Amino acid sequence: MQGPIEQFSAILGKQYVLIEDQDKAPYLTDWRKRFTGKALAVLLPKSTEEVASIVKLCSANNIGIVPQGGHTGFCGGATPDNSGKQVILNLKRMNQIYEIDSANQTITLEAGCILQAVQEKAAAQDFLFPLSLGAEGSCMIGGNLATNAGGTNVLRYGNTRDLCLGLEVVTAQGEIWNGMKGLRKDNTGYDLRDLFIGSEGTLGIITAAVMKLYPLPSSQWTTLVATDNIASTIALLNLFQKRATALLTGFEMMTQESLALNEKHFPQMANPLKGNPPYTVLIELSDHESEEHVRKLLERILEEAFEAKLISDAVIASNLSQANAFWHMREHITLAQAEEGANLKHDITIPLSFLDRFIRETDALMRQQFPGIRIINFGHLGDGNLHYNIAPPLGSDPKAFNLAHEKAIHDLVYGQVERCQGSISAEHGVGQLKLDDLRAHKGEVAHELMKTLKRALDPQNILNPRKVVSI
Ligand SMILES: Cc1cc2nc3c(=O)[nH]c(=O)nc-3n(C[C@H](O)[C@H](O)[C@H](O)COP(=O)(O)OP(=O)(O)OC[C@H]3O[C@@H](n4cnc5c(N)ncnc54)[C@H](O)[C@@H]3O)c2cc1C
Predict the structure, then answer these.
(1) 430: Cβ below 6 Å to ligand 1?
(2) Best exposed site among 112, 212, 243, 434 by fewest CB in 10 Å?
(3) Is 341 left (phi over 0), alpha (psi -120 to 50) or beta?
């Protein structure tokens, strides 16, 4: 009788079943280096049929499966536990783009496609695939769908969920559900697609998808503006929403402290706005008419914003490379934090009407209770999404500080989130990081419903056990 490793090898071929420590190592630690697990093996399937066979085999042997894409998630969802009994199912070899359907404006592809490759393929045929985030060079569509990733274009195009029309999923029983119709309307009962999106590999393994495409804008204009406080920043957002409507495709907020950290680690990323103001906002307009049309519109809105004293300074990117530099500055904050060392992340959403109160109150409480801490607050402000991150006081040992204060800091932030009717996870998901926080935040009824779904779809609890919900 063959053991599971021999049986995996019989399905995938021996070279795609990694069992040596040095071969498994690159798959065992998450991007933030916060979680490291052990694995029986790392499995690299090439087709949906292979995934289905692996799941059947795992089910027969009661082996936990941790689906994995680019392993860039921030909540440890794709990292196995420490038992050494789970397998990692990494989908990177399933990276075929099947077709672009120009009439239907869709792209059909496998889950292991790297996001940037999808954007490039779409652009080559004059289409925009709008999902865009800092990890796009390594994260994969399957991971994006499983976490319902957000990113910088949500304001105009929605989350990954809004971009998905069809899915193919391998169930916990190893069945293949083919839901690959590229339909914009389909009211045939329960929405299975939406059930799997955002389920972080706990309900099924996403193997392929049909995603929406949009016409590529003919012109984009990017500007950085200075604001003094959150109230003016939100008023500015509302002004842009009113005047630019659907042309507004980006509205990102960065605080003085975030950009100072950026400049410390990446001096070439210095804020071009004079004196690094309290808030720097990156605004992007995208247009299908003409350069002149969008530039004039942008200038008019900025003029109005100056007159209303919502902004005190502005720099408009004069060419594509300057626009890219503005975006790089925004995207490098996450990397600057990683360079600085261990930090505490809070990926939260707050209704825009509560945001001013949230920031004023939380900043004050935080500085009072944890003197010297640095609040690295930035995010997709247009979506009410803050990355309200805390770096330890300068000169302190980050690991020791986090160990001593992590729970108290999380409790403070999440308590404030509750009071302001927000969410403790905007776009990064739950994974293992927020497993315990979720129960308190979701409420008993919602949490029980989630467990009922998990038990119904994965009664053996083999798909990503102890992530999102524990049954
Ligand atoms: C620099 C940087 C910037 C980032 N910016 C953003 C941002 O702006 N917005 C945002 O939302 N996120 C952001 N992220 C987080 C991360 O990139 C996203 O969560 C991304 O969607 C994860 O994709 P992945 O392929 O790396 O998934 P992984 O990390 O491999 O997996 C994430 C989760 O999905 C599950 N999973 C993966 N593939 C599958 C599959 N095929 N089927 C079922 N389950 C699966 C895993 O088990 C895990 O639970 C950023 C990360 C970095 C490092």
Answers:
(1) no
(2) 243
(3) left
> Could you give the CA distance from residue 157 to residue 212 in angstroms, rounded to a whole number?
10
pLDDT of residue 440: 87
Q: Of 51, 127, 55, nearest to 91 (Cα)?
A: 51
Tokens of 152: 């910088």
Q: What is the pLDDT of residues 87-125, one digit of tens each?
A: 999 999 999 999 999 999 999 999 999 999 999 999 999
Quick one: pLDDT at residue 429?
Answer: 96
Protein residue with its CA nearest to atom 15 in ligand 1: 73
198 lines ligand 1 (CB under 6 A): no
Q: Among 133, 140, 167, 262, which is best to mutate for testing ligand 1, by the most ligand atoms less than 8 A from CB?
A: 133
3-state helix, strand, coil in the chain (%, to 5): 40, 20, 35
Three-state DSSP string of 129-141: CCCCCCCCCCCEH
Distance CA 233, CA 59 (A): 52
Mutual angle of helices 230-244 and 291-307, in 10-degree steps: 140
Which alpha helices (H) appear in 245-319, and where do they start and end?
256-265, 291-307
Dihedral pair phi/psi, residue 419, rounded to 5°: -60, -30
pTM listed for this prediction: 0.95
- Measured at the CA of 202, the angle between CA 176 and CA 7, to 5 degrees, comes to 55
Ligand 1 geometric centre to CA of 137 (Å)? 12
Angle at 236 between CA 217 and CA 276, to 5 degrees: 95
Antiparallel, parallel or unpaired: β 41-43 and 87-90 = parallel
CA of 310 to the centre of ligand 1 (A): 36
For residue 388, the cross-strand partners are 377
Residue ranges of the chain with per-residue pLDDT less than 50: none
Dihedral angle computed from the Cα positions of residues 380, 381, 384 and 385, in that order, rounded to the nearest 10 degrees? 30
Distance (angstroms) between ligand 1 centre and the Cα of 228 equals 33
User: Which one-letter amino acid corresponds to residue 470?
Assistant: S
